[in-house]
Automatic annotation (TrEMBL):
SUPFAM superfamilies: Nucleotide-diphospho-sugar transferases. Residues 4-189 form the Streptomycin biosynthesis protein StrF domain. Pfam families: Glyco_tranf_2_5. Gene3D superfamilies: Spore Coat Polysaccharide Biosynthesis Protein SpsA, Chain A. It comes from Mucilaginibacter phyllosphaerae. This is Glycosyltransferase involved in cell wall biosynthesis. It comes from the Bacteria.
Length: 294
């Protein structure tokens, strides 16, 4: 039995996913759809409200712009959570979390795990099947999960709820929740559930600022490398991700000084690799000077 929790802002999407859940879940369930249109509530606050209302032991948080393709997916979740060490289950995630703010596993991490049909609202791309299963598994342990679909249990949310202070908006709550739960439990991607996500993420200044809050909060644990990525590969990920982060600050008209905040936070970059710290400091300085000239 499953409590499905949705933060809703689009009646058309909600109507479609409500019908879809009924047709595919295959087990007794309740749908807790909370209308968040026109409110000041962030998604963490809405999800915590859903948790307080839920009556079943397995909880599933999902976006409303999805269509689940797999029949009886509810049974899949119930069977997976027989493993009491399992904290979160999703359909997309990453096994590596870099020091710099990023979407998931950083730039070119090759540590992405997912099974999802992805459509695009902000570009003319056609639907693609994103299937990344490097170890050819049915269930892959990951560090963080994408919020499009995250399942957990009442036992887990009794210990960890969504952080309404750090994640007061609509971004990075999934990374934060995954990192919190991952301190005690395993997070995993299942390939036995396929869903169609009808729109991609919209990366803008609000996304970046929300992301920075979460990465600053967890800086003391980063980089998080649960897939034993080599030191050489980790170095490349950290270098590329910081550069992309700095470039995005400029793209979103945010102060380049925020890059230095990440560089100097807790001496994490210095302790990780002093040579890389110096290289990235020089890169950030060049970007800052170029921004002043523009």
């Amino acid at each position: 039995m499953i409590s499905v929790i949705i933060c809703s802002a689009n009646p058309g999407y909600l109507e479609n996913v409500t019908r879809n859940i009924s047709d595919t879940i295959g087990v007794p369930y309740e749908l807790i759809a909370i209308n968040n249109a026109g409110t000041n509530k962030g998604i963490s606050q809405v999800y915590n409200e859903g948790i307080s209302r839920a009556k079943y032991q397995v909880l599933c948080f999902m976006h409303e712009d999805v269509i689940i393709k797999t029949l009886n997916w509810g049974n899949t979740l119930l069977n997976l959570f027989k493993d009491e060490q399992l904290g979160l289950v999703g359909v997309a995630g990453a096994g590596y979390v870099p020091i710099s703010p990023s979407a998931g596993g950083g730039v070119n991490s090759q540590s992405v795990y997912m099974n999802i049909l992805q459509s695009f609202k902000f570009s003319a791309k056609g639907t693609v099947h994103d299937y990344e299963n490097p170890e050819d598994e049915r269930l892959s342990e990951v560090a963080v999960l994408d919020g499009v679909f995250i399942s957990t249990t009442k036992k887990v949310v009794a210990e960890f709820t969504f952080d309404e202070v750090t994640c007061s908006g609509f971004h990075a709550y999934d990374i934060d929740f995954s990192l919190a739960v991952g301190t005690r439990y395993k997070n995993a991607v299942t390939y036995d559930i396929l869903l169609h996500h009808l729109s991609e993420g919209n990366y803008d200044s609000r996304w970046m600022l929300d992301n920075m809050k979460v990465f600053n909060k967890w800086n003391h644990r980063l980089p998080l490398n649960i897939k034993n990525i080599s030191a050489a590969k980790s170095y490349k990920i950290e270098k590329a991700t910081f550069k992309r982060f700095t470039d995005q600050l400029m793209e979103f008209n945010l102060p380049v000084n925020l890059a230095f905040t990440t560089l100097f936070k807790n001496n994490t970059f210095w302790n990780y690799n002093k040579g890389l710290f110096l290289k990235l400091s020089f890169y950030a300085l060049k970007k800052k000077l170029s921004a002043k000239k523009a």
